Amino acid sequence: MTIDPIVPVFDGHNDVLLRLLLSSEPSPETRFIEGEKAGHIDLPKARKGGLAGGLCAMYVPTPSQQKDANGDYKTPEMASALTTTLAMAALLARIERQAEGRLRICRTADDIREAMQRGAFASVLHIEGAEAIGPDLDALYVLHQAGLRTLGPVWSRPNIFAYGVPFRFPSSPDIGPGLSDHGKKLVQTCNDLRIMVDLSHMNEQGFWDIAAISDAPLVASHSNAHALSPHSRNLTDRQLDAIRDTGGLAGLNFGVLFLRQDGTRNPDTDLSVLVKHIDYIVNRIGIDHIALGSDFDGTTIPAAMRDASDLQLLVSALRQSGYDDEALRKICHANWIRVLDQTWKN
Ligand SMILES: [Zn+2]
Q: Ligand 1 centre from 272 Cα, in Å?
């Protein structure tokens, strides 16, 4: 019997910083570095499952999970959003210092390649919902200096830049207006600074506004095929085609809510469902435009995959359904590194 080699995974979305920050347990840095029972990602779990790194989101939760009259999430205030965002950036910086080479905050594609080569967790600072940034964009410049390299203008709620698509099922992503003037300026400034603009959580009008403005490949870091799971958060065929046409990618979200045909939060979801979404996207737009965007530590994932330590189960499932070494390399990390390299270099 031969044992399949581990395929390293560079992943497009995790919420480990939020999980660590929300936990009341002390020493989040040590818990991440030495590992703990809770959560999907820490260094020992990452090592076991071949999780080589990924985009670490700075996401500001809606205060007390408040919702408006439509049942949609309310938007946090800028001052508190900036405080929370800085707390997450600082936490990752402290982890990097304490980890003594086992985690690196990557600012270039070469940083990612080098970190992966020597087995350091290759993390990239990402904003999910830009509530911390005001209309002057001052915080954007400062955060960029601190290592921010990718940014989703919205989470699933409106802000001064754009309209985040609310969680609806079944629903088209075409809910709400497009980018504001502030949003257009944000996208142009991200282009100037070579910060990747992430389209996951963007509503459809905002998606097309960004497609018209941005000079970078279109990327949805953690979104699935709407044709298989008609959630408002997923990508329509037209959106997938636009991603392909710009050389971008879609990262597969492991959240059962965005995988299942029935839209329920049911963890009894077979890994074959993830493979089906990948098959669909590959058939539609090609092997160069699909990657992974687990949403580890941010959502309910299939029970068959307990956490990052089980990541190679998905790789095995893909291998069994016919993906060869080269295809697995692209899905698991090469597509992400190519798109980030192109976005950051231009
Ligand atoms: Zn998300």
A: 22
The per-residue DSSP string of 251-301 comes to EEP--HHHH-TT----S---HHHHHHHHHHHHHHH-GGGEEE---BTTS--
Cα separation of 59 and 128, whole Å? 5
CA of 299 to the centre of ligand 1 (A): 8
Positive or negative, the Cα torsion across 236, 238, 239, 244? positive
Q: What is the C-alpha separation between 257 and 194, in angstroms, rounded?
A: 32
CB 293 within 8 Å of CB 223: yes
DSSP state of 124: E
**pLDDT tens digits, one per residue of 110-159:** 999 999 999 999 999 999 999 999 999 999 999 999 999 999 999 999 99
Alpha helices (runs of H) in 14-146, residue ranges in sequence order: 16-22, 28-34, 43-49, 78-99, 109-117, 138-145
Cα–ligand 1 centroid distance for 243 (angstroms): 18
Sorted by where each begins, the domain ranges of the chain are: 9-345
What class does CATH assign to 9-345? alpha beta
Tokens of 163: 């309209």
